[in-house]
Amino acid sequence: MDLLPSSHSEFSSPDYWERFFKKRGKIPFEWYGEYPQLHNVIHKYISPSNTVLVVGCGNSALSENMYDNGLQNLVNIDISDIVIRQMSDRHRVKRPKMTFEKMDVTAMSYPEGYFNAVLDKGTLDALLVSEEEQVLQNVQAMFSEVARCLRLGGRYVIISLLQDHVQKHLLQFFTNLGWPIRIHRVQTDSAEENNKSLSMPVFAVVITKLKPMPNMPQIVEVCRFEDRIDRLEGVQYLSAIIKDMQYYHIVRQQLSKRLPGDQQVSLELHSAASVVPRYSLTVVDSPSVLANKFAIFIVPQGRETEWLFSTDKGRLHLQESAGFQRMVVVSLNRGHSFENMEAIKAELSGKVMELAPSDCPQKAEVPFLSIGEDLGRRFPVSEGNSSASGRYIVEDVEINGGQLFRRLIFLQNQGVVQTEAKLIEVRKKKKRRGQPTREGPPEKVRVDKGYLPSDYLIAMVAGLSFLPSLDKPVSCVLVGLGGGGFPSFIQGAFPQVSIEAVELDPAVVDVATNWFDLQPDEKLVVHVADGIEFVRSLVASGTKRDVFVLDVDCKDPGVALSCPPAVFVDVEFLSTIARLLTDDGLLILNLASRDDAVKQEILDRLHSVFASCARLDLEEDINTVVFASTQHPDSSCSFSDKDRLSTALSEMNSRIKSTFQDSNVDVVEIMENVKLLE
User: Fold this and answer.
1) What is the CB neighbour count within 10 angstroms for residue 446?
2) With a threshold of 0.85, does the pTM exceed it?
3) Which residue of 128, 423, 465, 496 is surrounded by the most CB atoms within 10 Å?
4) Where is the Methyltransferase type domain positioned along the sequence (predicted)?
5) What is the DSSP pairing of strand 74-78 with strand 52-55?
6) DSSP string, 419-464
């Protein structure tokens, strides 16, 4: 199977190109490929019978190579009188059918429809050096002249680096004419290996002159695979595809050297059969030179979101443990089937060698590593659309040789598991010896409500130990329902706690009840409402609650705060929460941010509103669970009373184990590192 790399990254930053060309300095444009690299695309669109105009010919050997390979009706133009005389003298005898003329491409004297094809190797890029008015006028004049001189059905073939501004003006002009556009990636890798300077990938843009046809959809095509042409729905999709190919080219150059210690490079591999990436790759380098040079680590399906595989620190730990100088961590993406490890090795072997360190022998046998031979399996359960978060899927995953989990994934952020629950297969009868292994998902499963999928949820349960007692009725407001794992756990283990769960997104409520076995009753009431307005209405009515739990994710990936949205932790709303709580009341907050300064600012705000605060930092997550109270630090339920806390946690553990015998929740262990916020 052919695979195409791509990525979505900071590479699209508007400042990138400026930085790139500053690094290039005075190095000339030697990146457009020689005739052997351009041969296929040129001869695909230009035939020996064609009369061809080569614009900005310079002293390139391209025309003589074309002539010697059958394309002899060539007219070469350049604005330089010297180069035209030199080239005419060089080729007059040996290549008599090829002519050279001094001419300005923006004002040509040829008759309308004179040429079957126009070839431009780098001239457009050389002209379109900025977006100043005079430059753009010259480029528009060149386009107009090319369009005038081409015959109907003729091709304009442009060899270009297709920087953003070049793309914009080229595509805009010819889509306005309604001419079909096709883009090829020119394979120039062999030349690049000998070029030690920074370079960019080369593209061939093929534009065909047609009669104007009103209401005809614009034809836009891209050749990402040698044997396949993909037609796009519109020209707007070309930019992302071009950036993917440019990014991979830059990645390969970066990987010719060791990556800095704080940098990991990510990219994706597509198959020709699908627009959905088949593999996601992250390249990790050791800060040390090691004898073992290169390895590929295959992450089993369903485990790609674990800390070890989804974070920079986790992958670096994995790479150091394996002891390889460079490791490529490969995730198997949903929407594809994977037969076995051997099939994956065969599919990846050719492509991943392009990512090997420069000192890795070319014919070295690269080890493929994984956790056993279990690739994991995914079974789609449901899909739908959320007005707040877009498309989502519910899927069951089987990992570790048979453990089943149900997950909610929002497709706009597929690297994050929004909700997870452990499943228990309900077996109708004992499997007979010799019976074949089940191919599909279990026929009947139930949610294990004694299982909590993350440490922060366990910590939020443990926070109830700060209450005076769990033997009397406790009122709780939970903002952020998710799949309902937290309230379902409390509902089973601590029936004295009444929960009002508030969730803004009705689709999430539907998923929780239909697929995660959330069972509302008189002690567990679900409200579809805005959490902030709900709390404010309670406060306005004079209502008090014993516990307020806040577990809401931020939908904006561009901010440093992952959970909760900033409005929930401004001083005004924190003060509203304080007024909602009873005298012994407790705030439990899931705080997640990769920016330590942002996290500290929020902790400072909490301390300014609440008299007592404690925090629990979770080692393998970015989550910090915060416990806050309006009680004075010297009160009977003080966060600093370790003896009382220890007793309360032990009692909680006993209740949990008596309710859920096989629960993974250990509140004593999780709270070992809780500390006062000072």
Assistant:
1) 11
2) no
3) 465
4) 53-158
5) parallel
6) EEEEEEE--SSPPPTTPPPP-S--SSEEE-TT--SSHHHHHHHHGG
